[in-house]
Specification:
heterodimer; A: 99 residues; four-stranded antiparallel sheet; two-stranded antiparallel sheet; B: alpha+beta; FAD/NAD(P)-binding domain; 6 domains; 22 helices; 50 strands; 27% strand; binds zinc ion
């Protein structure tokens, strides 16, 4: 069970949170202008990263704030968390796991 | 025969405290401090059960968690537990236990005949034999196999015991209370860290409990006592014995099972928590989990009386028991000699040491020679005999590398064989924590490599096999852990003078051939005793094409069961490595998964049972519903009245009565559970415009509008009415089950997509109780309760609301309708719900006002073709599919879901669309969920046309009605459709979903 650092509350058990999928996928400004394939890209396509991954979490059983986390999907190491709109923290040098 | 195998003195048992217990109906006496296993051995009982497949007699092999054989059924009745290892059951007064997997009894077991067919019961036997036909598997094979192969019996009564859970945060958690773990806890504790030390045994000391050692001025017992005393005196150190760390998860989260009363007589357990699951989050974890001894794989190595050498030593030194009086030791290492020396010292007789190494020397070898024990170096046991107990062994000289030993056989009589194939560090938790293992050729074992988590390893786990190494390694691990969590360790204490023998070397010897090749003849070389897997089974699996260790495990069952292969995994993969001619590290280990030892469901559930398993939410009117005979339906966590049957009424009659009351006079519904969200802020109207499919900007204050919400993919996700309370304030209602997810949805968009919008959302579901009155007389009832409220259609039209006083209570009244009748939803502060309800009942008495529940509500809305989200929709349904294009704005440039309505898939003409169904026979009520087809007579599989989403008997229409999603349904009105059911096919006509009052005239009463 992950130990997730909420930017407002500090470290809490994963069971207090809801997962929100890949971060930094903005809703298109004007969906009507998009081709079907572009809209489908936004709707359905996500990266399946092996290594450090920016993802959204909601502290649903706490402060109810959304925020972002950089987590290594192989080791589950969390590099850091940051508020919506903030810049992500620097990634460690090795951005994936060799294994 | 009373404790004929008990030594005259010594051990950590209390000989003044005799304990009575029963095994297989026979009474015995043991001592306090015994386990069931040690007490049985003291009484000369070795035969504890029968093996899984061949029903061969089996006895005690080990002394702890690694025990593969001696599983018993413990206790009786509601508290009985199957398959508990006798080696881990602390003896208590009145204990009763019996063998498992025996019928009719352990001495005479009918299924032992399986042994005669052993040649055909090889790896994959069950899979190959009972594969086909499937129906025979279900009806015949499985029940028979289960009876023959089943282990213990699960209790059939409810578990009466109490279990609980506890959460703990510490800087340093130490797993394993042996010498290394004790030193680690001491180092971290002295540094000032919060420390938790857990150990699965009844007392701390680990391997030291089984050995004789002098540590400085103290013997082993004195040293353990000193360590425990110092740790206990530290306020920030928590010590848990009888506590097994069974799972090691991400970010140093570990689960521990503490057995609090399992060692007590039944009378002393009453009212106490039996077991507790601890949830630990640790800054650093020190693993000091020790090592398990490996058996040697030789011919018929499974007879009762064949045990691990270190376990023999444990029984002698810790429990004062001689597991046998004439022992043969079979070993590939020096360390096991200590078992022989200690047994001899305690009064037993070691008749021979069979050492498969050709050259043996060293301190322990010399000590054995000094006791005049015969040492046969370069020899192996090539066979054993004895029925329910080993009686002799066959010994031959080894020809190096040979597949068969042809040298002369010598028989040696004995009643105990101690064996040692070396030691395997208990890497289970380390592996669970994702650490990688490294194979150590010299120590002949897998050791922890680089840890993946904030963690240290120490003691035998880390390959530190001598006490001296353990003490130093343990202290270093504890100090490192404390330092890593921000503490400054105290200076390392001077190392004490330790008296221990040189443990010498080890030579791997993974499989011992006999006089015939392995797999030929009757002899069996068992690798996994619990699953009856032999070396020949592994060879067969490889011959049949299996190579991966994970596949071999599943095909041969090696490593499954309650012991999870603690004594067999390494032997199995070493044998596999030999067959494949690949080095052991290349073969790899199977995955270690939690739990380390079995954990009962009761412990995992803790207090979350029955009424406490999930919150129960009730309205402020709930008690009235109970008193008036309501039957309830669960909607999410809510209890909602389902219907209110009168005495002698069937459900059908009650629903007809309730529905007709609404259609003809007036009914009343507790609608308090509907989700309510207060939405406030200058951008609230703009926000709703983006969330809902229809337009909200121009909704007047005091007016109400129905809205549909979609996800970005255009699929309907919730619906409800929303009222404009003020320019910058709305009250949204949601479905009962969807309230939480709608609030999440709103907050997600406000926080992540549109943070510039000034809007705040507050759940007020439990602030407002809602009483809905519906029917032609609804206005008359409300008039009586709110004489000052203007109820005229001009001043209080449909889809508007008023604030005022109802029955003397501050109220908001909404004129909306889910029944198609004139209807008012009266909202009052939650605490006033019951008062309002009672006032409504009193005022409505003259109109015979009728309380109705969710079932009648469903019928009434279905008659009107109103959808219920989650019933008519399933996450693949668009507003257009529901025929609700009218609520989808064409003018708004954007809202959630809009772009998806023009995707090729959502624009398909053959999508499932909402229609009404009228069965050909009016009394046929279709089952909800029934599949529909256009032509029941085409060859199977018949193409599916859709399914029934709602179906009821409508009293108002005097016939059955149904709603359905049908492919291209909107263009099929008037066509026939068929529901093939069990035994009959029902024919129905596709019609418009609105079946009652199509013109909507009844809305005005
Ligand atoms: Zn928070």
């Amino acid at each position: 069970m992950l130990n997730i650092d909420c930017p407002w509350c500090g470290k809490r058990h994963e069971t207090e949170f809801h997962y929100g999928g890949e971060a930094h996928i903005a809703r298109p400004e004007d969906p009507a202008k998009l081709e079907d394939t572009e809209w489908a890209e936004f709707l359905f396509m996500r990266t399946n990263t092996k290594g450090y991954f920016a993802e959204r979490w909601l502290h649903s059983h706490g402060c109810r704030r959304w925020f972002n986390v950089i987590r290594n999907t192989v080791t589950h190491d969390i590099v850091g968390s940051y508020k919506m709109g903030e810049k992500p923290p620097k990634l460690p040098k090795r951005t994936g796991d060799a294994k | 025969m009373t404790q004929a195998f008990r030594t005259t003195s010594g051990g950590r048992i209390d000989r003044r405290k005799a304990i009575n217990f029963t095994f297989n109906g026979q009474s015995y006496i043991g001592y306090e401090g015994d386990t069931l296993a040690s007490a049985l051995l003291a009484n000369g009982v070795h035969l504890l059960g029968r093996s899984f497949k061949y029903h061969r007699p089996r006895g005690i092999v080990a002394a702890g968690a690694e025990e593969p054989n001696s599983m018993v059924q413990l206790g009786e009745g509601a508290t009985t537990e199957p398959n508990i290892r006798a080696t881990q059951i602390s003896l208590y007064e009145g204990l009763t236990a019996s063998s498992v997997n025996v019928w009719p009894n352990v001495e005479f077991d009918i299924s032992a005949i399986n042994g005669l067919f052993a040649k055909i019961m090889t790896a994959g036997f069950y899979n190959k034999t009972f594969m086909w036909p499937r129906s025979m598997w279900m009806k015949l094979y499985e029940p028979v196999i289960r009876r023959a192969a089943g282990w213990g019996k699960a209790p059939t009564q409810t578990d009466p015991d109490i279990y609980d859970h506890m959460h703990l945060h510490v800087e340093v958690m130490v797993v394993g209370g042996g010498p290394a773990g004790l030193m680690a806890a001491l180092a971290a504790g002295r540094a000032g860290a919060r420390v938790l030390l857990v150990d699965e045994q009844s007392e701390f000391g680990g391997s030291l409990l089984s050995k004789k050692r002098q540590i400085g001025a103290k013997d082993e017992a004195g040293w353990i006592a000193d360590m425990a005393a110092e740790l206990e005196a530290m306020p920030d150190v928590t010590l848990l014995s009888r506590s097994t760390a069974f799972g090691y998860y991400d970010h140093n989260y570990l689960c521990v099972l503490e057995q609090k009363t399992d060692h007590l007589p039944a009378a002393e357990r009453k009212g106490k928590v039996r077991q507790r699951v601890w949830h630990i989050r640790a800054g650093q974890v020190v693993l000091a989990t020790g090592a398990h001894e490996r058996p040697l794989v030789f011919a018929d190595n499974d007879r009762p009386g064949i045990m691990l050498a270190g376990s023999v030593q444990t029984y002698v030194n810790r429990y004062g028991v001689l597991p046998g009086k004439k022992m043969v030791l079979f070993t590939n290492n020096d360390a096991a000699y200590e078992a022989a020396i200690d047994l001899q010292a305690a009064g037993g007789d070691v008749v021979a040491i069979i050492d498969c190494r050709h050259e043996v020397s060293g301190e322990l070898v010399d000590a054995a020679r000094a006791l005049d024990i015969e040492i046969l170096a370069g020899y192996a046991i090539t066979g054993t005999s004895g029925g329910k107990r080993v009686e002799s062994v066959e010994v031959r000289a080894i020809q190096k590398g040979a597949k068969v030993y042809t040298s002369a056989a010598r028989q040696i009589d004995c009643d105990l064989v101690a064996m040692s194939g070396g030691w395997s560090p208990v890497v289970h938790l380390f592996s669970q924590s994702q650490g990688q293992l490294e194979y150590d050729e010299e120590k002949v074992c897998f050791l922890p490599g680089k840890p993946r988590q904030a963690q240290q390893v120490a003691g035998a786990l880390a390959g530190q096999f001598t006490l001296k190494e353990c003490l130093a390694g343990g202290y270093k691990a504890g100090a490192d852990a404390a330092r890593a969590t921000g503490f400054t360790p105290k200076r390392k204490p001077a190392a004490p003078e330790i008296e221990e023998p040189d443990l010498g070397g080890i030579e791997p010897f993974w499989i011992v051939p006999g006089s015939r090749p392995i797999g030929e003849g009757m002899a069996k070389h068992f690798v996994d005793l619990q699953n009856d897997t032999t070396a020949a089974d592994i060879e067969l699996a490889v011959r049949e094409g299996f190579e991966s260790v994970e596949h071999i495990k599943r095909y041969t069952l090696t490593g499954f069961g309650t012991d999870q292969g603690k004594t067999s995994n390494i032997n199995a993969l070493a044998i596999l490595s030999g067959i494949l001619d690949k080095p052991i590290p290349k073969v790899g280990t199977t995955t270690f998964r939690p739990p380390y030892t079995p954990v009962s469901y009761g412990a995992l559930a803790g207090r979350n049972l029955g009424d406490w398993s999930d919150p129960v939410r009730v309205t402020s009117i709930h008690d009235w519903h109970v008193e008036n005979g309501a039957l309830f339906e669960n909607v999410g966590q809510w209890k909602r009245p389902w219907y209110f049957p009168k005495a002698g009424e069937t459900m059908h009659e009650a629903l007809n009565r309730e529905c007709l009351a609404v259609r003809n006079a007036v009914g009343v519904l507790d609608a308090s559970t509907l989700g309510k969200i207060d939405i406030r802020g200058p951008d609230a109207a703009e926000f709703l415009n983006r969330i809902y499919t229809n337009a909200w900007a121009k909704l007047g204050i005091g007016r109400v509008r129905y809205g549909l919400m979609c996800h970005e993919d255009g699929m309907v996700f919730d619906d409800g009415t929303t009222a404009r309370l003020a320019e910058d304030r709305f009250l949204m209602t949601t479905t009962t089950g969807g309230a939480a997810s709608v609030l999440d949805w709103l907050e997600e968009y406000l926080q992540t997509e549109w943070p510039e919008l000034k809007v705040y959302c507050t759940s007020v579901t439990e602030q407002w109780a809602t009483v809905s009155i519906a029917g032609p007389k609804a206005g008359a009832v409300l008039k009586k309760l709110a004489p000052e409220m203007d109820l005229s259609h001009e001043n209080f039209p449909f889809l508007s609301f008023k604030e005022g006083t109802v029955a003397g209570l501050k109220a908001r009244v909404f004129r909306i309708s889910f029944t198609g009748e004139l209807s008012y939803e009266i909202n009052v502060p939650w605490a006033n719900g019951l008062a309002l309800w009672e006032a409504v009942m009193a005022a409505g008495a003259e109109f015979d006002i009728t309380p109705y529940g969710t079932e009648s509500m469903h019928i009434l809305r279905a008659e009107k073709g109103f959808i219920i989200v989650g019933q008519e929709t399933d996450g693949t349904t668009t507003p257009q599919d529901l025929g609700m294009d009218w609520i989808v704005s064409k003018k708004k440039p954007d809202f959630i879901g809009k772009r998806s309505f023009t995707r090729s898939d959502t624009a398909r003409p053959d999508r499932k669309q909402l229609v009404g169904l009228l069965t050909e026979t009016p009394d046929d009520v279709l089952p909800e969920g029934a599949q529909l087809v256009f032509d029941p007579n085409v060859p199977k599989p018949i193409p599916m046309a859709g399914h029934v989403t709602s179906s009821y008997y409508s009293a108002a229409l005097g016939r059955s009605i149904a709603l359905a999603l049908v492919k291209g349904g909107h263009g099929r009105k008037g066509q026939k459709i068929f529901a093939p059911l069990e035994g009959k096919t029902v024919t129905a006509e596709i019609v418009d979903p609105v079946l009652y009052d199509k013109e909507g005239e009844r809305l005005n009463g």
